[in-house]
């Protein structure tokens, strides 16, 4: 059972998300909150698998709530998925840098929303739904040479290559095709990179790849 917490200051939207999630046999909404401070308290109380958090809220905004969740070792099992009305705006990398595992716009179709929740529970939220692949393609370009990024020196060349492909929004299967290896080997490269770099999930790999220069921001 995937345990979900909803945090949004719009009651109607919150009710809509809850109704959609409650219809699924493998998903349980454990609590909901109308502001960031209440949401953070409920995260600590319920320890959900997924916290769906609005990016702009009173008291504490979604980025600050995410930052506090990511900084608390007791909440390491909580995957934050940021919700927004505003599409691919300047808050995207702030949210990911704060520790968010995913980023969804609120007009996402129900099927993609439910898929995103399930993928988030596996730790792949940022890269699985189609909306998030569009997000990544807007902000990053092709990788530089595989030696780029002083923060990535612990990685092998193949691991750096896999991280660069993660940052382009590719799944393990797509990485395997690009690198001409098996999906299991691709997953191994990604997981080893995450362990060596001490990151929570694939979202943090994207941020690290972006900030280290392994991939570069797309000019606007």
Order of helices and strands: EHEHEHEHEHHHHHH
Number of helices: 10
Task: Give the total of beta strands.
Answer: 5
Provide the gyration radius in Å: 17 Å
Give the proportion of residues in helices: 40-55%
Tell me, briefly, the overall form.
Answer: globular
Strand content: 5-15%
Intertermini distance: 42 Å
Mean of residue pLDDT values: 82
The helix/strand class is alpha/beta
Major sheet details: 5 strands, parallel
Show unreliable segments. Answer: 127-131, 141-148
Q: Report strand order across the widest sheet.
A: 2-1-3-4-5
In words, what does this structure look like?
- With 220 residues, the protein is of the alpha/beta class.
- It contains 10 helices and 5 strands, in the order E-H-E-H-E-H-E-H-E-H-H-H-H-H-H.
- The protein has helices spanning 11-22, 36-46, 62-71, 92-98, 110-121, 130-139, 157-167, 172-179, 183-197, 202-212, and strands at 2-7, 27-33, 50-54, 79-84, 102-105.
- Strands 2-1-3-4-5 form a 5-stranded parallel β-sheet, sandwiched between helices.
- Helix 3 (62-71) runs parallel beside helix 4 (92-98) and helix 8 crosses helix 9.
- The longest helix has 15 residues, at 183-197.
- The protein is globular and about 50 Å long.
- Mean pLDDT is 82; it is low at 127-131 and 141-148.
Provide a short characterization of the protein structure:
The chain is an alpha/beta fold. It has helices spanning 11-22, 36-46, 62-71, 92-98, 110-121, 130-139, 157-167, 172-179, 183-197, 202-212, and strands spanning 2-7, 27-33, 50-54, 79-84, 102-105.
